[in-house]
Amino acid sequence: MHILIIGAAGMIGRKLTARLLAEGAVAGQAISRLTLADVVAPESPAEAGFPVQAVTADLSEAGVAERLIEARPELIYHLAGVVSGEAEENFEKGYRVNLDGTRNLFEAIRLAESDDRYRPRVVFTSSIAVFGAPFPEAIDDEFLQAPLTSYGTQKAMAELLLSDYSRRGFFDGLGIRLPTICIRPGRPNLAASGFFSNILREPLSGKEAVLPVEESVRHWFASPRAAVGFLLHAAGLDLERVGPRRNLSMPGLSATVGEEIEALRRVAGEKIAGLVRREPDPKIARIVEGWPRNFDTRRARDLGFEAETDFEAIVRAHVEDELGGRIGA
Amino acid sequence: MHILIIGAAGMIGRKLTARLLAEGAVAGQAISRLTLADVVAPESPAEAGFPVQAVTADLSEAGVAERLIEARPELIYHLAGVVSGEAEENFEKGYRVNLDGTRNLFEAIRLAESDDRYRPRVVFTSSIAVFGAPFPEAIDDEFLQAPLTSYGTQKAMAELLLSDYSRRGFFDGLGIRLPTICIRPGRPNLAASGFFSNILREPLSGKEAVLPVEESVRHWFASPRAAVGFLLHAAGLDLERVGPRRNLSMPGLSATVGEEIEALRRVAGEKIAGLVRREPDPKIARIVEGWPRNFDTRRARDLGFEAETDFEAIVRAHVEDELGGRIGA
Fold first, then answer.
1. Which terminus in chain A has less CB density within 10 A, N or C?
2. Using 50, 70 and 90 to split pLDDT, how confident is the model at A289?
3. How much is the pTM?
4. How many structural domains is chain B composed of?
């Protein structure tokens, strides 16, 4: 099977690539070829049991999507996009990349389908940003998409396209709405949601971290490891079972900031947990207030998607996957 | 106030035009100018108390939207679009007209806003086709948009754009989802939904009509008069009260085909009602099975939108507005 990953240089793309290289197979089929595409050149892995090609490509440019599918990859992961803050900052860029780029890809596949019956599986990462407040206690699979950001709007539009193109038989699409990924590896970032990861990742490496909100703030989480698990499971899922509603909120864990810190304390001890410094920031508190707190993801779970069910598991996944088991070093 | 109607040659566009000409004002403001645009030349009314200009214009062509808003109309009705059957038949045309055409209009306004703070009210006619089965008993304002047609997909995408452009302050948008319009004037048409109107309109003019489904089939209706009423009300509505969710399912009447015929009997008598001939068509029955039957439109009603509450009123509206009060002639 030839797999194309668009957005391969991002955090999830790199983890997915590593996992595919390690497993050599997906959905029970051996991988014969892997194409890694991104707007910045993706790293080419040193060793792989099959050909791996890294491509610098911007889907929003004319002709790029056609070129990416020229070799007819059977499985396409579309992870590429401009993030929420940037899409809000730069209106035109957000629509160009997140909407037009996605539509370019879908259109290229549609035209290839009518040329030679090409019909790949397309797995698209959407976002819980397709939902906007006010929310019910837990957002279920029948709750409306009324986003409150341009990013959420672009993702919701892409979801609609994905369902329609799938219904028309142009490809077999599945959209998966990722929870907030926690613990996000790397350096602290300035995204409003950054603190959810910072307050665990930094102390686990022996550094201080700032908590800008109350401990009672509740949000919706899954680990990077769970996110990669969703993507692998999506590759082999029987889409007949999914039906025409092709976009699914992925399972996750609803937890408060207090529960995050408690899990940190249990896994890493009092001293590490003491590295979280309270420094309330009303601006961040206000932004976070409008975010979803909990989901009812029965549908995805019935289809076999799985995530962590307690925060200690999320902390432990980070210690194992990112720190080689060493805390506070 | 300068009003622009895009899609002015359609059934609703013509009725809206007639009503605006008759009233000379909308939302408490005198009309100073009216521009009628459509892909086929709209009829220019013979007499009006203000300048009326008819324009042939296809929004999906480059530069057309810019030209239409050049004189900065304060109120824009966007009623234009390819209908459901055609959008399903011709995939590219549907997206070009219903999605790209709408986006062209919104983009032209956004760029004008940044040039000279132009910020019109935009009233957009969406459709209950944004919803797809399976439905709850009554579809409320928090039910997801999971359309099962390309037309519904395009309308749902346009709704998302409208909310986002409104949230960003580029214009003041309101999307209204019309019920199935009944009794649709004119000649019988071949749309799958045509019979809902045919079985009333034809007998009221003394002609036979074919009923292809069971009398128990339930659907969601409003008269053309009610639809024009929605459009007028939307022009003056305080959008602060609407909030960020800018698309509303309009009030209507949930009724069975049997109730339609019973209303016809009560208004026009046994002989007229006897002109409905049963001729079951399993293909049409199957299509109609997937359609919404009932809505909970509390939100729109709280905002002052009104429709008929019994089918006799719908039949009487047709007799008054289309037949000059004469039945069976």
1. C
2. confident
3. 0.96
4. 2
